[in-house]
Design a protein that fits this description.
Shape: globular
Helix content: 25-40%
CATH class of one domain: Alpha Beta
CATH topology of one domain: Rossmann fold
Largest sheet: 12 strands, mixed
Distance between the termini: 40 Å
Length: 312
């Protein structure tokens, strides 16, 4: 089934070129089904690139999905035109009364900034609390995963001396968890971050469980028992060249940047990347939509129950 996205969204042409079926709201209105309502709070600076990455993963499911792009403020980042933000994004105030089956909160390049110094932190915490009342299951990616842990549980991330960048092998710790259905015992996933929280800390919190981790990258997938919160510390949505572009961007800016681990052929930046995480990313999103959202959400979203408040 297709995903329903706004007319003229640049991602539509990209996805159509990949033979991914999308449709606009006019055609969606003729479908006699109850589509899934999914919001994306996009905190990444290159909004268009992130939109394509996430919409590609959301499209790989038999469910029809209506997607709302959400912004935390009216400021456009330098890598995205203001006209794009105004045309395709909803201010949080516009959707504050809406219920969603699922919500995705992206990462953000804010590794060395204390949470309270993030310019939109107050709005961010307001949205996190709103999601507790209005969203069946929320998927937090990278920085957002650590930010949510800090807000809900008071857990402060630690920072590595150098950036964790590369594609790392991960182990499945809970093979019977529905989010991991179809996973091989070992799989690869990209990381690009400084922050980390030890697996033992996650597991010490009542109702949370680390279900996949990497010897090098640490805890990767953490879930709540009620399936309503999923924390993913990496970037399963990344395109084949995303780590490539990040690395050379940092080098050109004169920054010391480690060569992404297990990414370039022979670890040589002059050679093409080895792409071995996309099937895992697709399966992760598909399982989240099916088992953590569709199978648990009420047909009438007005009956959505408020989540139990996390215990600090």
């Amino acid at each position: 089934m297709p995903i329903c996205i706004p007319e003229q969204l640049p991602a539509q042409d990209v996805l159509s070129g990949e033979n991914i079926f999308t449709m606009d709201s006019n055609r969606a209105a003729t479908q006699d089904i109850r589509p899934m309502e999914v919001g994306i709070l996009n905190l990444m600076p290159n909004k268009i690139q992130t939109e394509v990455q996430l919409l590609r993963l959301l499209s790989n499911t038999p469910l029809q999905i209506n997607v709302n792009l959400i912004r935390v403020d009216k400021l456009a980042p330098k890598n995205t035109p203001q006209s794009h933000m105004d045309a395709f994004y909803h201010d949080y105030s516009e959707i504050a009364d809406k219920k969603y089956d699922g919500l995705i909160v992206t990462g953000a390049p804010l590794a060395h900034l204390p949470y309270q110094e993030v310019k939109y932190w107050d709005k961010m915490t307001e949205i996190l609390e709103w999601a507790q009342r209005n969203v069946q299951s929320t998927l937090y990616l990278c920085w957002a995963a650590h930010a949510a842990m800090y807000h809900f549980h008071g857990i402060q991330r630690e920072l590595r001396e150098s950036k964790l960048s590369g594609v790392y092998a991960h182990k499945v710790l809970d093979p019977y968890n529905e989010l991991l259905r179809g996973f091989d015992p070992e799989f690869y996933a990209p990381h690009s971050r400084y922050g980390f929280i030890d697996s033992q800390i996650y597991n010490s919190i009542s109702g949370l469980k680390v279900i996949t981790e990497s010897p090098e990258a640490g805890a990767y997938t953490i879930v709540s028992e009620d399936k309503r919160m999923v924390f993913v510390t990496g970037h399963p949505e990344y395109d084949p060249l995303t780590l490539h572009d990040e690395y050379f961007r940092d080098i050109e800016a004169g920054q010391e940047s480690p060569v992404p681990v297990n990414y370039f052929t022979d670890d040589d930046p002059t050679k093409p990347p080895l792409v071995r995480w996309r099937s895992h990313g697709s399966l992760l999103f598909n399982n989240w939509l099916n088992y953590y959202v569709y199978q648990t959400t009420p047909y009438d979203l007005s009956q959505l129950a408020e989540k139990a408040q996390p215990k600090r």
